[in-house]
């Protein structure tokens, strides 16, 4: 924040007020003493709520919450370069783990850890996303700013199939299965991530096995139709918010076929 010097027009008010109090009648007058007021230093916090998806010896899904404390310096009213960040991680079917760390306003970077977990992400607009690890598990996480609206998290799985032809002209099919998690804000904004837990080829054609890296999703909910954009194409998902279930599929270039389903994260 840039410090602004008071304008000259504001400084001129004080001498005019003093002259009005002292001039005029020669009779004495008394002025009530002013009462000093103390303005507390402004503070605020921002909470991101979302999901994670990872893979190691087995797949991993869950939810993550990170709260960033933005501290304002009372002396200069400048935000500190580094603020504290706290949160929690809940793995589906497991325990909840507390995490803590920092938020760096100069890079919009968030780094928190605890209980064997380590998260590194970046805030971009109203979303936070990045990578995480826990022991042998690596993956990605994403979350939405709750100040824009309440956030509902969905955890599920996906299956994809795509025709494949190798360098020898042989045809086959590449298949991929994995975890697929999404969070939707009450304002319709959605983000998420997916990660393959198994993949391979069927038929005579064989090819390279893609790395088990997270694929980040962004999109918008309109009515019951949730459209998510990912690296592999556009995934259109029909969402039943009352039942807490989402399911859908995609057909895009390369005859990629994906089926996905998710329910409210537990």
Give a brief outline of the structure:
This protein has helices spanning 8-11, 13-22; strands at 43-55, 59-71, 82-91, 96-104, 109-114, 117-124, 127-134, 137-145, 151-165, 171-185, 189-202, 215-222, 225-230, 233-240, 245-252, 256-264.
Could you describe the 3D structure shown?
The protein is mainly β and 266 residues long. It is 5% helix and 60% strand. It has one domain. The protein has helices spanning 8-11, 13-22, and strands at residues 43-55, 59-71, 82-91, 96-104, 109-114, 117-124, 127-134, 137-145, 151-165, 171-185, 189-202, 215-222, 225-230, 233-240, 245-252, 256-264. The model is unreliable at 1-43 and 71-78 (pLDDT under 50).
**Proportion of strand residues:** over 45%
Cα radius of gyration in angstroms: 27 Å
Number of strands: 16
Characterize the largest beta sheet: strand count, sense, and whether it forms a barrel.
8 strands, antiparallel, barrel
Shape: globular
Number of helices: 2
- Class of secondary structure makeup: mainly beta
Helix content: under 10%
Strand order of the largest sheet: 1-2-3-4-5-6-7-8
Span between N and C termini?
A: 42 Å
Low-confidence stretches: 1-43, 71-78
Which sequence of SSEs, written as H and E, runs from N to C? HHEEEEEEEEEEEEEEEE
The mean pLDDT is: 79
How many structural domains in the coordinates? 1
């Amino acid at each position: 924040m840039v410090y602004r010097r008071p304008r000259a027009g504001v400084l001129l008010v004080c001498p005019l007020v003093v002259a009005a109090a002292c001039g005029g009648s020669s009779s004495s007058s008394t002025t009530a003493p002013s009462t000093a007021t103390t303005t507390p230093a402004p503070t605020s916090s921002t909470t991101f709520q979302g999901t994670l998806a990872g893979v190691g010896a087995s797949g991993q899904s869950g939810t993550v919450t990170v709260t960033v404390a933005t501290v304002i310096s009372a002396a200069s009213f400048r935000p500190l370069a580094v603020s504290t960040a706290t949160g929690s991680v809940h793995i589906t079917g497991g325990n909840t783990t507390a995490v803590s760390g920092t938020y760096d306003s100069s890079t919009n970077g968030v780094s928190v850890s605890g209980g064997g977990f380590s998260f590194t992400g970046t805030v971009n607009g109203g979303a936070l996303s990045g990578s995480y690890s826990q022991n042998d598990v690596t993956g990605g996480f994403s979350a939405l700013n709750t100040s824009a609206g309440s956030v509902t998290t969905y955890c599920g799985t996906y299956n994809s199939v795509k025709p494949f032809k190798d360098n020898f002209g042989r045809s086959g099919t590449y298949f991929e299965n994995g975890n697929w998690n999404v969070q939707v804000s009450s304002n319709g904004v959605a983000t998420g991530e997916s990660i393959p837990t198994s993949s391979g080829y069927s038929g005579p054609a064989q090819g390279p096995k893609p790395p088990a890296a997270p694929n980040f999703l962004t999109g918008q909910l309109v009515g019951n139709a949730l459209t998510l954009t990912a690296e592999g194409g556009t995934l259109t998902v029909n969402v039943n918010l009352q039942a807490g279930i989402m399911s859908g599929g995609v057909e895009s270039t390369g005859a990629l076929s994906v089926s996905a389903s998710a329910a409210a994260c537990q």
